[in-house]
Write a structure and sequence with these properties.
Elements (H helix, E strand, L loop, with lengths): L1 H10 L5 H12 L1 H15 L4 E6 L4 H12 L13 H8 L7 E5 L8 H8 L3 E4 L7 H4 L2 H13 L6 E5 L3 H4 L8 E6 L6 E3 L3 E3 L3 E8 L2 E6 L5 H16 L4 H9 L9 E4 L5 E5 L5 H13 L5 E5 L9 H15 L2 E4 L5 H10 L5 E4 L4 H8 L7 E5 L7 H7 L32 H4 L1
Parallel strand pairs: 1-2, 1-3, 3-4, 4-5, 5-6, 11-15, 12-13, 12-15, 13-14
Antiparallel strand pairs: 6-8, 7-8, 8-9, 10-11
Helix pairs in contact: 3-5, 4-10, 4-11, 6-8, 10-11, 12-13, 13-14, 15-16
Length: 432
């Protein structure tokens, strides 16, 4: 109810209203759609391999990687991974299709068992257990226990593809009768990789082995954490008996998923690295790890708030501030009151760079960043409700009129939103 009131106060009568009504209707139809999905799966998808991707991080990139590894087109008409959207993913699968790949997300206990009963997976990939939804699920251990319910539903002739570098994921091996395939950088993993090497600005080189076979891939992805998606794709191809050399070649062509370490060359000659879709503590540190390796004239970071910090906020923000002091020449904070927490860490580290607090003012952030030059690298990192992708879009030359500080309309991204480039954007006061 509160979400609906907020929507109509801000967007009522706008071009977003039909999209909102469609989303609300789909959510209301969840009980019916879930039942229809079960019936459809039982009758028409009995021989279809149902591949499910779960985890706290990296699901969408893994979704793309599995499609590439299997050499099948990416069909992603929906941009959500819960409730009615999971049911629709099954219902939209062609009759007797050889594969269906489904990304499943949860935000509270009791959900995964329902999804598992609807899908009845034949192969499950678990990416990682991290702090996203830590508040609603309670702890990392409880998050792992909830997600493991999908793995438990696997048949004896199924496959559980588990991140061998994540202890909470690897523990799920004891929860299934299915064959377990591990992947990671840890020695002994079934799909084992060496540490990736950055080839700026082309991507990262990854060397991995599958049994006695070895492969060298020049990927277009940036960040050690995204290499797990490549490994999961190769693991899936291995389990399903595909030609691994062909799968590796397909994975080399895979472009970054929008908003996940996505590189753009700006007209000025600067580079923009968009990581503006998610901002958990783990993804911030992963982004800064690769950012520290990038050669640049100046390194500029645009940073929003930490999404669901897993412990006391002060030390978390302070530690990130200390990291920024050591690697960034300029930092633009779009984090409201939490900017001061970042700054406290920077001061402790005696940072010498220039730090600008834009609060939640998109226009101020745009004006500051308009001074970028050739040779600069700009990292934009923020959580989805902050919509820092508007900053990325501004740098890419899009007209950005909307400056509302918070938006939780998850069914539409800023680049497709009809409110993005209107003449009069929301003011900060209107959005509060």
């Amino acid at each position: 109810m509160a979400r609906g009131i907020r929507f109509w106060r801000l967007y009522g009568g706008s071009a977003l209203a039909p999209l909102y009504r469609r989303d609300e209707l789909l959510q209301m139809l969840w009980p019916l759609l879930s039942l229809l999905a079960i019936i459809y799966r039982m009758i028409f998808l009995r021989r279809t391999r149902r591949i499910v991707i779960i985890g706290s991080l990296g699901k969408t990139t893994t979704y793309h990687a599995v499609h590439h590894a299997l050499g099948i087109p990416i069909n992603m008409p929906l941009n959500r991974n819960s409730k009615s959207y999971v049911a629709l993913r099954l219902l939209q699968t062609p009759l007797r299709a050889p594969f269906v790949i489904i990304e499943v997300g949860i935000d509270r206990t009791g959900q995964m068992a329902r999804y598992a009963a609807i899908i009845k997976p034949t192969l499950v990939i678990v990416t990682a257990i991290a702090s996203e939804h830590n508040r609603s699920l309670g702890s990392l251990e409880k998050t792992a226990a909830e997600k493991s319910l999908m793995v438990r539903k696997l048949p004896a002739n199924g496959f559980a593809i588990l991140n061998g570098d994540d202890p909470l994921v690897l523990q799920m091996a004891s929860a299934t009768r299915a064959r377990v395939i591990s992947y990671g950088f840890t020695p002994g993993a079934d799909i084992q990789a060496r540490e990736p090497v950055l080839h700026w600005p082309h991507g990262m080189a990854l060397h991995l082995s599958v049994g006695r076979e070895a492969f060298s891939l020049q990927t277009r992805l940036f960040g050690r954490h995204l290499m797990y998606a490549v490994m999961a794709g190769m693991a899936t191809a291995h389990c399903l008996g595909r030609d691994l050399a062909e799968s590796a070649a397909h994975l080399e062509k895979m472009a970054p998923v929008p908003g996940r370490m996505q590189l753009h060359k700006l007209p000025s000659g600067a580079f923009l690295l968009r990581d503006d879709f998610k901002s958990t503590l783990e993804t911030i540190n992963e982004a800064l790890d690769i950012f520290a390796q990038i050669p640049a004239h100046r390194k500029i970071v645009v940073l929003g708030e930490v999404s669901e910090p897993p412990s006391s906020q002060g030390p978390i923000y302070g530690a990130i501030g200390e990291r920024l002091a050591g690697l960034a020449d300029q930092v633009v904070f779009v984090a409201g009151k939490n900017s001061s927490r970042y700054l406290a860490g920077i001061r402790r580290a005696s940072g010498k760079g220039f730090y600008y607090d834009a609060h939640h003012d998109m226009v101020a952030a745009h004006r500051f960043l308009d001074g970028h030059q050739a040779g600069d690298v700009i990292l934009v990192k923020g959580r989805d409700t902050e919509r820092l992708d508007r900053i990325s879009l501004h740098l890419l030359g899009r007209k950005v009129g909307c400056v509302i500080p918070h938006c939780d309309l998850r069914f539409v991204r800023c680049e497709q939103c009809p409110m993005l480039d209107r003449e009069r954007g929301f003011s900060v006061q209107e959005g509060r």
